[in-house]
Amino acid sequence: MKILVANLGSTSFKYRLYDLGDPSEPLLARGAVERIGSDSAGIMLSSAKGEFEMVAPVLDHGAAVQLCLSQLTSPDFGVIGAADDVAAIGFKAVHARQLSGVHRVDESVLDAMESYAEVAPAHNPPYVKAMRMLHARFPKLPLVAAFETGFHQTIPEAQSRYAVPDEWATKYGIKRWGFHGASHCYIAGRMAELLGTNDARIISCHLGGSSSLCAIRGGKSVATSLGMSPQSGLPHNNRVGDFDVFALPAIMAETDLTLSEILDTLATKSGLQGISGFNDLRDIEKAADLGNSQSTLALEMFIASIRHYLGAYLLELGGADAIVFTGGIGENSARIRAGVCRDLGWFGIEMDWMKNSTGEGERTISAPSSRVQLWCVPTNEEIVVARQARDLLSGKGA
After folding, report:
1. Does the residue 152 lie in any domain?
2. Engineered SS bond to 94: which of 123, 131, 157, 381, CB 3.0-4.6 Å?
């Protein structure tokens, strides 16, 4: 069974094609279409047969998928005989009203996602628009939404509830839903393999443009830093993270901004960018090295927030067998990893500073004397979504 996994942006379509009929689950091809809607869209395909790049007009996401399928079936670079060989398109969907888990996309799923457009403004609108377009253009091709909240359905109620009127939670679904589920799920499974046990206590640190921590026990999520929306938890590249809602009336009074304008600022111009002026951690680190105090502050705040949740999850789990760094920042920033793990010897956490500053890919970075293993593990959200789509179509998941 061949599953195409799509990662959508408002003007982009990135994909990976997996063959899940093969026990080794090989990645057959990967590609991307950037600047959709322009006359100069960038198109890329990489497969076992070679690499292909070009610039051409691509009007919409439907056209991007049509182009993708044409590439995948081409004699020169393709890896499948016909478009019908693709069993489904799986989407790493984010959020929907009163809906989680894995679902075949239909009008009810799209309506639920659309209802939470303001809760996940950077994610839901482009996904809903593209899914409707793809369904209209390819009505026989199953579309599967694997919601990022699904992995966190095992979090105990005491950890997932807010202290709000009961009806808000039970009737309206106002609670800590959590996100990055595919990434944390992959880390849970991969660490079970690396540690040789399914009962490990793992703290997964997914750090990137969007960041979260997850406490995992026995392969299941028991706590996560993200809440009702992807704007919560740690500071993100341009999203606020944890924030006291009672600051809103004060901001409105001082600035004359509307609630909608403030929410847009919190969702698009805050986080690390709001503090430093940069929305890429690499730029923030360079500026800090040059003495920029705001960039230094942004790094310190980011590290402090990670350590805040790390401490909470060490307590929740009664210690940890492994702390895992993943995501673009988690895998590549030795500075952030070192800051998070400094002075934690009394927790049994000791970093090998040389290993932390060198190497790449999947590896340990803990000292031999450390009771808690420290790991860098590249995540693979796409294979998780592909497996979930396969299981749903095979009647093994829901």
Report:
1. no
2. 123
Distance of CA 379 to the CA centre of its chain: 10
Number of structural domains the chain divides into: 2
> Looking at the domain assignment, is residue 363 inside a domain?
yes
Query: Please, what is the end-to-end C-alpha distance for the chain in angstroms?
Result: 18
Residue 113 CA to residue 29 CA, distance in Å, equals 29
Average pLDDT per block of 10 residues along the chain, 398 residues long: 87 90 94 88 90 88 86 89 91 95 96 95 88 88 96 97 97 96 97 97 96 98 97 95 96 96 96 95 97 98 98 98 97 97 96 96 97 97 96 82
The answer to whether residue 171 sits within a structural domain is no
All residues at 6 or more sequence positions from 291 whose CB lies less than 8 Å from its CB, including other chains: none
d(CA 271, CA 285): 15
The answer to whether residues 135 and 215 belong to one domain is no
Looking up tokens 């790049």 gives 53
Read off the pTM. Answer: 0.93
67 token code pair? 């182009």
Kindly tell me the burial class for residue 50, based on how many C-beta atoms sit within 10 Å of its own C-beta (0-12, 13-18, 19 or more).
exposed
Residue 347: inside a domain: yes
